[in-house]
Design brief:
Elements (H helix, E strand, L loop, with lengths): L1 E5 L5 H15 L6 H5 L3 H14 L3 E7 L3 E10 L9 E8 L8 H15 L5 E6 L4 H7 L3 E10 L2 E10 L2 H5 L1
Parallel strand pairs: 4-5
Antiparallel strand pairs: 1-2, 2-3, 3-4, 5-7, 6-7
Helix pairs in contact: 1-3
Bound molecules: coenzyme A.
């Protein structure tokens, strides 16, 4: 049984572990090996802890009664002003052991509800090109809306934006 709840400061080490472990797994073929190797659990934990401490943005975790925290989602206001939407899903990661059991969808739904409650109406998420997660966002009704290039380690990569104009549909 998995429940979605707001993250607390004590979740920051679980969030950092899932974030880095899933980067190393999901982006193995897409990003530089040295870049992935030098990611630091401690640095990541400090960043998530600071976000929780400052109450900047929204952070949910998915907690399994058997396995503890197995996924998380981070969101907040849209950052680029490139799109006609005002909310953003900034991170979504679920441990592979729990893929395909509805955890990702539940996290997105909770985020959509929270953004709606904060007065936002739409949402964007950035996905690395060639990351199969784009299929998940399309499945949930997201539509491709543009690209951006960024440097990660020694590699230049392309991210694609998926948008939802109507958060109400996602919130269910
Ligand atoms: C993307 C991710 C969050 C999806 O989480 P999940 O818990 O496996 O997804 P769910 O079980 O909630 O799936 C919900 C629906 O989407 C579908 N789906 C899931 N992943 C999919 C994919 N890659 N392509 C197409 N459809 C997908 C499921 O079949 C399910 O459909 P249904 O309910 O209609 O039967 C998860 O695969 C993940 O953490 N991936 C690695 C990290 C990552 O890439 N994160 C995104 C960064 S932008």
């Amino acid at each position: 049984m998995v429940t979605i709840r707001r993250a607390q400061r004590s979740d920051s080490s679980d969030i950092a572990r899932i974030h880095i472990d899933m980067w190393r797994l999901a982006y193995k073929e897409l990003l530089d090996a040295d870049f992935l190797r030098q990611l630091s659990y401690r640095r990541s934990q400090r960043q998530w802890e600071s976000m929780l401490q400052r109450h900047s943005g929204v952070l949910f975790v998915a907690e399994s009664s058997a396995d503890g925290v197995v996924g998380f989602a981070a969101g907040g206001p849209e950052r680029t002003r490139r799109f006609d939407v005002d909310g953003e899903l900034m991170a979504l990661y679920v441990l592979s052991s729990h893929h395909g059991s509805g955890v990702g969808r539940s996290l997105v739904r909770s985020m959509a509800r929270e953004l709606l409650e904060n007065g936002r109406t739409g949402m964007v998420v950035w996905v690395l090109r060639d990351n199969p997660a784009y299929g998940f966002y399309e499945h949930l009704g997201g539509t491709p809306a543009g690209e951006q290039e960024l440097e990660l380690g020694d590699r230049s990569v392309v991210e694609e934006a998926y948008v939802w104009g109507n958060l109400g549909m996602l919130a269910g």
